[in-house]
Amino acid sequence: MGEALLSWPDGNDRVPYWIYTDQGNYERELEKIFYGPVWNYVGLECEIPNSGDFKRTQIGDQSIIVVRDAEGGVNALVNRCAHRGVKLCEQDKGSFSEIMCPYHQWTYDLKGNLQGVPFHRGVKGNGGMPADFSMADNGLDVLKVHVRNGGIFATMSDETPSFESCMGERILGYYDRELDGRTLSLLGHSRQRIGANWKLMLENIKDTHHASLLHVFFVTFGLFRVDNDSRVEMDDTGLHTALSSIRGKQELNDGTAQMRSFDSDLALNDPNLLDVVREFPGDETVVMQTLWPNVILQQQSNTLATRQIVPKGPNAFELHWTFFGYEDDDEEMTARRLRQANLMGPAGLVSMDDGQILERTQEGILAHPDEQGVVELGGRDTDDADHMVTEVALRAFYKGYRKVMGL
Amino acid sequence: MTISPELRSEIEYLVNCYALAIDDGELERWPEFFASDCLYKIIAKENFDSGLPLGLLLCDSQGMLQDRMEAFSKLNVFGPRSWRHMLGAVHATGSEAEIVARTSFVIFETLAGKDTHILCAGEYRDIIIREDGMLKFRERLCVYDTTMIPNSIVRPI
Ligand code: FES
Ligand SMILES: [Fe+2]
After folding, report:
1. Per the count of CB atoms within 10 A, which of A2, A62, A156, B104 is most buried?
2. Which run of H or E residues covers position B121?
3. Are A345 and B56 inside 8 Å of each other by CB?
4. Residue A227 backbone dihedrals phi, psi, to 5 degrees
5. What is the mean pLDDT of the segment spanning B112-121?
6. Whole-prediction pTM
């Protein structure tokens, strides 16, 4: 479609559909967002506890190696040989003491420095690299890394402000509530590919009221519902959001009466699934954070996870879930977290619905780039709310997005 | 310890009936295939191989199987589709008291109006016992190789 059509309607209460489908816009997003001045989530320290441990991940379209070096530091390296561009690492995770390219055996240390080039000085006086070839200038591309309480973030831009100033104080408060400095213990991964634009995943978490309508499971057991005491809070940019809520009762009231999916008689045969214990200060039973640009940090009851969003062109994204607990969890707590993990992931009692509905959203809008969505619930403003009958987090998000994208 | 030909065909019958019940959409029969004390877990090979406990789906009691079955049948929201389990030959060892079986599977999924795709490929790792005269799964681990699940798994596998 023509550039002229790629404009934004007036106000924050409409979202044009071309931002979810346009290839050119996707490419600009890679440059301005993922490769720009942001902190991309790339993993948890508990995934790479020992020197030499690495994991492979992705920022935008680029493959990235996250590795712990001999001194215990965490490095993020572009997964591309400096010689002729071979993808260095194919495994998802593992351990190595150096990185060697199989093609011509250039070797790198775990900080990305070029350590060895075969036939550097030639063979029997023939060939070799020129005398002025610089090992120092031909290492791997290295990203700037920031680690906070076990979470690892990386940036490709030299202009990125500090992690703390990018997040803002109140979001950091929620971040530190879950990642509170205790050593994390890794429970495992789930991965799914969803045929929808990556922003729809962030929206899905920022869209508080859908949970009361789409998710029968949530609704019935009061885990996340419009009649619960809740708050929607944004940072100054509007791009990060923290939603917090207190679990409600399975009762018929003004809110539940309007939800066609509410069933006051539904009971679990095995109530162990919802054997929730309070483990954080405050009364909140759920805090969902969307951290710009690519991660959801989740606490729903006792299930803790990050969901990394990896865009795959305008019409698909991958969701990489990492479930975790704390090193000081006892066996009972670990069992509880693993049971409650049933709520989430590609077969989640709740999140299964989201995967399905996001794909249907993409299918619905695909042929209608000129149309627009309505986000007027709770008004047209972008201020924090002390309830969840609102789409304010979406309005705030797109206000921030327009600024980043120059739209 | 050997598995007699009669027992072998009984095991194969169990493994087959299980897959057919799911493909036929008779989810209410799903819990019946399990022993009263049971474990059902769908787990990614990457977790299984690294000793990480997280399941994509975990039921450690008959009650949880029932709850899952009801959620799949009534609570969750997803479009119409067909499933087709393709099973490899059952490899069974152990004894009549506790049979250990491994069976490869591929599940083809066809969504209304779309191409058939592979939902996942993997292996059942079963422990089978006899309860009330019938063979039942005491443990059924579905270890899947598939790195990226296409959207969601909306039934038991
Ligand atoms: S491409 Fe890597 S060493 Fe040549
Ligand atoms: Fe949802």
Report:
1. A156
2. strand B116-131
3. yes
4. -85, 0
5. 95
6. 0.95
